[in-house]
Predict the structure.
Amino acid sequence: MNNPCLIECVPNFSEGRDMSVIKQITDEISSVEGVKLLDVDPGKTTNRTVVTFVGKPDAVVQAAFLAICKAGELIDMSKHKGEHPRMGATDVCPFIPISGITMEEAVQYAKKLGEMVGSNTTIPVYLYEEAATSEDRKNLANIRAGEYEGLNNKLKDPVWKPDYGKAAFNSKSGATVIGARDFLVAYNVNLNTTSVRRANSVAFDVRENGRLKTDLETGKNILGDDGELIRIPGMCKSVKAIGWYIDEYKIAQISMNLTNINVTPLHIAFDACCHSATSRGMRVTGSELVGLVPKKVLLDAGKYFLNKQGRSKGISENELIHIAVKSLGLDELGPFDPKKKIIEYLLEEKNTNKLVDLNLSDFANETASESPAPGGGSISAYVGSLGVSLGTMVANLSAHKKGWEDKFEYFSKWAEKGQELKDRLLHLVDADTDAFNKIMDAFKLPKESEQEKVDRKQAIHNATKEAIEVPLMVMRTSFEALTLLKEMAEKGNPNSVSDAGVGALCCKAAVQGALLNVQINCNGFQDGTFVADSLSQANKIYSSALELEKEILSVVFNVMDK
């Protein structure tokens, strides 16, 4: 399946106090079809609002243009005061490729927006990051140097001629910087101090650019043999940071931009701040995320802190995120709701009909109703998820068994594998019912004209093929779970060996139940080659599952008999 073509836009507007102004700007964004407004994050002290929206590229360009125009109309930069560096009503407007789009294509959309703003408004536009027209314009800090107050003189310098629009000072709207970049995490770490100087000392320790090297006796900057100032690099690559005081919270913070979370993840930047603060007589008390993050950021953080504690990382997604929030202190300054801060959660379609969202009683009642779905395929997937959950439980209990500390990593990895298999099987619970419903819908299609007959036949073919492939996936995944259960029966906590045995019975039942679905859906299917191949695969998995179940139960009974 092709990923939908999605681009994210994260404009920063120089207004963080007047919510009526902010709403008028975001209403412009929401008015564009094909765009979804994900997050609006105002800051009173910074007097700045970070807005996040996502959608199809052309729609995103249109929404960004309308927002920039509305901000220019409502925000008067000549009266603006705030802690954050800024040079315009819409200070910066980056595009981030999310799926189905390359960085090169994102650059073209950034340039398209720049041309629209430059041609239709009196706002000068600069391009930055991947869209920059010269190396010295890649870095936002270079473009924004001097801020709004220095913009009038800057525009008189031919070196700083805008990329779009006239080199004329717009006293009300300032200038706007538009670009394309990789995903950036805006992240602030809280300190138990009000001193900006001390917060900056931590920022200089942490950020990649570090600090200028100075002579300890004279305090003067030291030059290298090439006559250039020498810098002492900081601890974290791909991190930009400054210290500031936030009157709203009455604390100083290290304000960071993590420009490549694969190089320096959130939790590593946090720990670097903790290390620096402690060495300077301060303490990190918590942190805050500005805008949104991919789910992986918090899942990785949760696993990192669990690993430091010597605890198994094979726990549920919700538990991992909870550990991350508490470890990073993301709820210190206010409630932290993952559903409102994680991109994937915000992009999820609001589907109240998912079987896996039902409680146990409702799921059983739905299965027992007169509707043919959910049926044996969905139940097989669910039984398999219960089986592998038992194996995951054994792995977690084994990882925490007293005296088995040297085996912690081994069982933790198996528990992580179990969580992955459980999630795959839970997905297949609904996938099986969806496949059945597609067959029913295909049979209801009109068949009056010749073309309608052809379309109906093709729809039935495609839906039936999917209804065969889904239970095959249930079989494969449940068989994988049996290998985990065997490992836990043989090497896991002996006090839980019966749980491994019950898990094996469940997963074998899942394999056998899914086999029945493969067989019945193959009956009468016209693609003989596909049917033969599917039945061959299914029968091999079933035979192997029977053997593996016997081996596991043999181990279980041997341990229980001792």
User: Anything to note?
Assistant: The radius of gyration is 29 Å.
